[in-house]
Structure formats: structure tokens, C-alpha cells
Amino acid sequence: MVPTITAFERSPDRGKGLARDMRVRWALEEAGQPYEVRLVSFEAMKQPAHRAVQPFGQIPSYEEGELVLFESGAIVLHIAERHGGLLPGDANARARTIAWMFAALNTVEPPILERALLMILDRDKPWYDDRLTALEGSIRVRLGDLSRRLGESDWLDGEFSAGDLLMISVLLRLKGSAILKDLPNLAAYVARGEARPAYRRAFADQFAVFEAAQAMPA
Ligand code: GTB
After folding, report:
1. Section 37-48 average pLDDT
2. CA pair distance 12, 47, nearest whole angstrom
3. Whole-structure pTM over 0.90, yes or no?
4. Which 8-state DSSP code applies to residue 41?
5. Three-point CA angle 152, 199, 11, nearest 5°
């Protein structure tokens, strides 16, 4: 059964691949699983029909037969459990991979996301500089720990896994920033993820959505 995911009809990131459908597309590409995409407008996302699929009126969602799923981490885990290549066979290695998936979403992503939102929403606030300095300090502490743990390895725990897919998806939001440049092994880790053919296919597909939206009247 070919699953259907949802994505922004017009992504505010202008094709940079930062919205969370990208990590689901990437996982599906790694799995070799064809999929369909239903594009939703900001208005449609908040309507009952979409909320029946995604209770918070957000993207992405995932439908496969009778299965309806939301939360990008849960969707990536579902894909990884059903296809080869994203979760190790050994039970302990599998548990560690799932720990890295949680670490990406619960420990590393929050301050990175908060920094991004601050930079979009609060530049005019008198406390902006102080808050930015504090958040960047928190991110540097987290990423310093991650960088030491990764060391000179290609991936976080053996072969490439869903843990790397989510961690790299989270770090991509810092691409080009001094924070990532100051940690060359993490910058190289992100570049290794981006160089994967599955990532490139996923990126090209989401970019094609952006280009199509540009050609349409607003
Ligand atoms: N925890 C949920 C998950 O992981 O699936 C969070 C889902 C989520 O935040 N979805 C966002 C959304 O639908 C899109 S990805 N927002 C609309 C709304 O809440 O009304 C977050 C996102 C949005 C925009 C950019 N951007 O423009 O760069 C990047 C990422």
C-alpha cells in the first residue's frame, strides 16, 4: 500500500527543506518506499478534515490503509520498523537507535527551534540580544557534547540509522551558522547526511513543490 503524507502547499522556508515533512520524505526514500503527497494550505490545515488526521492542525501526517499517524518522529519510527536500513536488527542496538531519535527531538531540537523562532518573531524586542546569547550558549553546550560523542565516527552508533536521520534533520536548521562551523565534525556529519542519495531525492521533491507554488498565483 502506498502511503500518503501531507506537506505545506506553500512552505514558508522557500524550498530550504526545513519543514518536518522533509524528514518523513527522507525516511521513505531511505526505505525505498514510494509515497504520495497531499499538499495542504494553512487554511485547510486548521479544518476538521485535516485535524481528524493531525489533531494539532499541522503537517506532516501519514496515512497508510487504516493507519493514520501524526508526529514526524513517530512516523519515521513506523517507517524504520517496517523497512530495512534504518533500525539495526540487534535488540540493544535498536534500543540505542531509538534513544538517539528521542535525543534528536527532545534534547537537541528544542533550543535550536527556539532560536529560529526568536530570530523570526522577536528581533524588535529589547531583550532579543540577551535571549539570543543565552539560547546560543545552550545550543553550543548541547552540540559540544554531541560533537565529543560523535568524534571521528561517520554516524552516531554504527551504521547510518533513523537516529542519524533525525539528528541531521534537526542540525540542518543551523547550516551556515557559526555554531555549526565551530564544530567541524558535526558540520561534516550533516554534510554526509545531505550527500546521501535518499536525502537528495527527498530534497529535490520538496523543492519541486516550492517551485510549483512560485508559478501559481498566491
Ligand atoms: N511535533 C510535530 C512533528 O514533529 O510532527 C510538529 C509539527 C510542526 O511543527 N509542523 C509545522 C506546522 O504544521 C511545520 S514543520 N506548522 C503550522 C502550524 O502549526 O500552524 C515546522 C516548520 C515550519 C516552518 C519552517 N520554516 O518556514 O522554515 C520550518 C519548520
Report:
1. 97
2. 19
3. yes
4. -
5. 125
Atom of ligand 1 nearest to the CA of 116: 28
**How many Å lie between the centroid of ligand 1 and the Cα of residue 60?**
8
> What proportion of the chain, given as a percentage, has pLDDT over 90?
96
> Could you give all domains of the chain from N- to C-terminal order, each with its CATH number?
4-85+198-215 (3.40.30.10), 91-196 (1.20.1050.10)
**Of 143, 145, 158, 147, residue with least CA distance to 97:** 158
CA of 152 to the centre of ligand 1 (A): 32
3-state helix, strand, coil in the chain (%, to 5): 60, 10, 30
Nearest Cα neighbor of 25 from 46, 39, 42, 45 is 39
How many CB atoms are located within 10 Å of the residue 96 CB? 17
Residue environment code for 157-192, b if the CB has 16+ CB neighbours within 10 A, otherwise e: beebbbbbbbbbbbbbbbeeeebbeebeebbebbee
